[in-house]
Amino acid sequence: MAIIDTAGARLHVQRLGPAEGRGGRETVVLLHGLLTDSLASYYFTVAPEFAAAGLDVVMYDHRGHGRSGRPALGYQLGRFTDDLGALLDRLELPGRVHLVGNSFGGTVSFDYALRHPERVASISVVESEPATASWARKIAGLLERVRHEMTVNESEALDWITAHRGRRTARLARSAGRLVRDTAIADELTVCAPVTEDALRLLDPPVLAVYGADSDLCEQAPWLGSLLPRSRTVPVPGHEHSVLVEAPGRVRDEVLAWIAEHPASGAPATRPRAGTGPGARPGRGPGTGHRVPAVPAEVNTP
Amino acid sequence: MTTTHPAGPPEADEDAILADITAMIAEVLEDDGLDGTDGLDGTEIGTQTRFGRDLEFESIDLVTLAGHLEARYGRQVNFAEFVASMELDDIIELTVGRLVEHVASCLKSAGAA
Questions:
Q1: The domain at A2-129+193-261 falls in which architecture?
Q2: For chain B, which domains are there?
Q3: Largest alpha-carbon pair distance within chain B?
Q4: What does DSSP assign to residue B58?
Q5: B63 in contact with chain A, both atoms CB, cutoff 8 A
């Protein structure tokens, strides 16, 4: 276990890889979901097999989650994205990496790739979506509901969860309730200027999107596929939102194939890193009079 | 050729491993600043103790424990590999004894190698 300090948060990082050193291999960074999730969802599913397949595997807990620090403030999407950038710097991973994001971890992956396309070889998201206006509304509703239930009726809510979902889920829910109640996440994560379709059309790295075929999110597959020319959408039958932990073998196979098709040593990034802030270069997409900033500057920086 | 430990180093003794792992569990629970639990809080740990049900371990606690195992025993004890074939729910219901057996068997094969 390693703890890495980024601006405003201490991040718990785990790394797996074959014993024979890390040189020259593809690096994959695994990003987990919101509230009840942690890097354990990868550590006990696909991560060991990614390492066995020869990848350098980096996992970390988002700020406020798992064994990472839980600051009172600083939960705008941009802060999560900045954590990823700081982590890559601190781990001295200057080349392009493959991002794998489950649920909210995929939202962070999209956001990072929009801001730093030159550092991303490929994106694989599981049950996830970019930070669009509809995502922001959904997250705001979810966080508000959790805050209400865990503030007003915590013991009743936990009793219900224990009875219907088991003690383990109840314990995770209690911890998630604390995150929502004791930090500004419910206020800050929702104050996010949404990403537009025009910005998504300019997304550079190729995107694999895996869905549980029975999940609501799966309805977005055609929409996402139409926006992203270099993408593949894969519905996994018989599963809902928890497809990563319920069907890890399938997710592993899809992601490994996607990474193999898009090696970091392959086609170079189309945009240089230096001097490219959002809007720093003229738009290159046809039909857009001006470049839409991929992701706006951070909201209400203290 | 007078070794009295043909099966490996002294650490391969299961009682010693249980003591090691008990100390690691206490450390994991102490590090968990989230729940107001303080270490073992009087809980006796034996081979039948289950990580999830008895110790209220979450999966992230097992990740931390895996880190302690590697720090103590080196890469020959690979927890991630050990649980690779299990479902998350089975992992969380592991007993301490099962983990002790796994560590002992890893150390024995490393010692025999």
A1: 3-Layer(aba) Sandwich (3.40)
A2: 10-39+46-112 (1.10.1200)
A3: 53
A4: -
A5: yes
